[in-house]
């Protein structure tokens, strides 16, 4: 038995592979294109682990994916690979179309052909699990109920539009070709190995570097935060007992305004590593131009996953965010490693 994990050198994919192999011995074949957002350091602890095989490659490379499927005959494929940063999708949507739409399509085609080659026994347990986002549902008004699996898709950024397209393709491959798919739509993750272009790791990194902490617009946009390891446990649960063809929303019931998140981070840093000049990290907060088309509020109703599959998150926002700050303080070498020249170029472009 083997599973294939795509996007395994990114934030959530790496956490998933590390947790998977910490909990059981089923081998993992990892496929990752190694874009700017990835880091093989994330998987360093598995370098000499016979249970893990890393392959550099694109989910859109049909020949490579076909060869991997024939060679390893995975009993499940978990698709984490994506271009994932909303701001980058606004500055340049092309890569998002290529990976999230065309790449997912090519991957599905390869999997369809592989599925067709299986024995009845293999086919009955095979699963294709597609990892998606709550952003496909668009934006909520303050009094709206949280997103359920019944909400319409109303994506507002090139990123979320391409993720929505990929979700639709996955659904269509189930309805049309009978591919045994599962889709998860998760809220904002945070935790170890999060690339510091995203709000939480960016704020921790900038705070420690004495730089400004950029708040888009009025900072009152709401996100629903989930500790990454809870997302990984939800995916394992869906893979194990999820009903074929179903989608499951994943979230931790942790709605927070961005400004509150940044203030919480600053308060933990004041505690854990006070500024040398005795001032507060919150003094570094700076309001900057808003993100175009900025979604005002996301909130996930995860009750289907809780009720039908018995999943619950282990962390509250308070416990998870403290662990996360501690991880960044203890892993400054990882941060230096990922904040290369290319990273600095991005910051200059995005924040002028
Ligand atoms: P990430 O950007 O940190 O990692 C993505 C990984 O995919 C990188 O390692 C990258 O090299 C790889 N990749 C990109 N294009 C590829 C291609 N064509 N072929 C193979 N590999 C490729 O993203 P993440 O935050 O880890 O997100 C993983 C998945 O989870 C994405 O599908 C994302 O849409 C979804 N998601 C993310 C969040 C979040 O808060 N980060 C929340 C919900 C859902
Ligand atoms: O909701 C799930 C999504 O969460 C995932 O699908 C995406 O892959 C992931 O990147 C994340 O998208 P967001 O746009 O919500 O995350 P980001 O960390 O970029 O921003 C979080 C909020 O903070 C958002 O309202 C924008 C704001 N922000 C972000 C940055 C980088 C700022 O105010 N300042 C910043 O510098």
UniProtKB/TrEMBL annotation:
InterPro entries from the xrefs?
dTDP_Gluc_deHydtase (IPR005888), NAD(P)-bd_dom (IPR016040), NAD(P)-bd_dom_sf (IPR036291)
Q: Where is each NAD(P)-binding domain found?
A: 4-324
Which superkingdom heads the taxonomic lineage of this protein's source? Bacteria
Q: State any GO BP term from the record.
A: nucleotide-sugar metabolic process
User: By its UniProt entry, which CDD domains does this protein fall under?
Assistant: dTDP_GD_SDR_e
Catalytic activity reads: dTDP-alpha-D-glucose = dTDP-4-dehydro-6-deoxy-alpha-D-glucose + H2O
Key words of the record: Lyase, NAD
Pfam families tied to this protein: GDP_Man_Dehyd
Q: Per the record's keyword annotation, is Transmembrane included, yes or no? A: no
Q: E.C. number, please?
A: 4.2.1.46
Q: Name one GO molecular function term.
A: dTDP-glucose 4,6-dehydratase activity
Q: Which cofactor does it need?
A: NAD(+)
State the NCBIfam families in the record: dTDP_gluc_dehyt (TIGR01181)
Q: Which family does it belong to?
A: Belongs to the NAD(P)-dependent epimerase/dehydratase family. dTDP-glucose dehydratase subfamily.
Q: What is the recorded name of this protein?
A: dTDP-glucose 4,6-dehydratase
> What organism does the UniProt record list as the source?
Pseudomonas matsuisoli
Gene that this polypeptide is encoded by: rmlB
